[in-house]
Amino acid sequence: MIKTDKNKIKKILIIKFGGIGDILLSTPVLPNLKAYFPDAEINFLTLRHSRDILIDNPYLTRAFTYDPTEDKSWCLIKNIRSQKYDLVIDLFGNPRTAFITFMSGAKYRFGFKFRGRDYAYNIKMKGRGGIVHNVEFNLDSLRALDIPIVSKKLVLPVNIVHEEFADEFIRSNKLEGKKLIGISKTGGWESKRYKKEDYIKLIDRLNEMYEADFVLFWGNQKEKENCQFIKDNIIKKNAYLIPDSPIRYLGAIINRCDMVIGNDSGPLHIAVAMGVPTLGIYGPTNPALQGPYGDKNLSVVNDKLDCLYCNLLDCPIGNICMTELSKDKIIEKVQELVKINELNLA
Prior knowledge:
Elements lengths: L10 E5 L4 H5 L4 H8 L4 E7 L14 E5 L6 H11 L3 E4 L4 H9 L4 E5 L10 E3 L8 H11 L15 H13 L7 E5 L11 H14 L3 E5 L3 H13 L5 E3 L5 H8 L4 E5 L2 H8 L4 E5 L4 H4 L7 E4 L18 H4 L3 H14 L6
């Protein structure tokens, strides 16, 4: 393994594929790189559907994308080689990104020591093993490069256009000055989603405790229909569906909330990036690995089960990690979140 010469690193590429949450959990790497290499050009390669997260990121020079269903790997590799990167950091570490890193032509190539990937990297480290949050896992790449960690904040830039979009949502629903609790019904897998009937019961309980209105987040048509069902069936008619909202527009709306509650999904990590207190409801995925990051955010699980953190997309036993999760337990966590963040929801 070679040692880096800081003075010879002028152009850096970060590679990270994945969903919204995966990319957001990698963004703390960027301010630390920029602090250590203030004059370097820093670029980011991700999948097309996640690019919006990186637009206008103040620590990046350029974000570009790859779509494995359309783009040819050799075209991508040719483009990357032409950029003449000095350092490539592969945060994804699958066979494709390892090969891209190897073929980049960069003098310094970092990656984790997953089986069959060692050939691609000349600076590498073995994962710590055990339970390591994805943010810390990503930051371990910098530790391996002896780059100081000066920030662990998730980064999602929003601008005046996104803020005006959120303002219009607040105005049109007459929510000015009101306390708002965001509810995220999104999620890539059905087994990760807290069910609509349970959200109704949870919101009814929260309405007995707090003077707040509810903002319901959705991403696709089915989630929108679920949110409409929740809105129509809570006792107190004080829930509002967001309009169709691309990532940074959603971030601006989330930033208007006093807290966010939801299952494992992109909006939870967006809430963390916006600095909004966040409670995650988890089951098939492990919050210690990918829960809402930071000591002022919390997660709740049905810890009576032996099958937690199964990572199954479809549950063969009725998704009981969600359906049998006690509302009392969620309420306790909400109260704890209110306390540690000194929220006033009266």
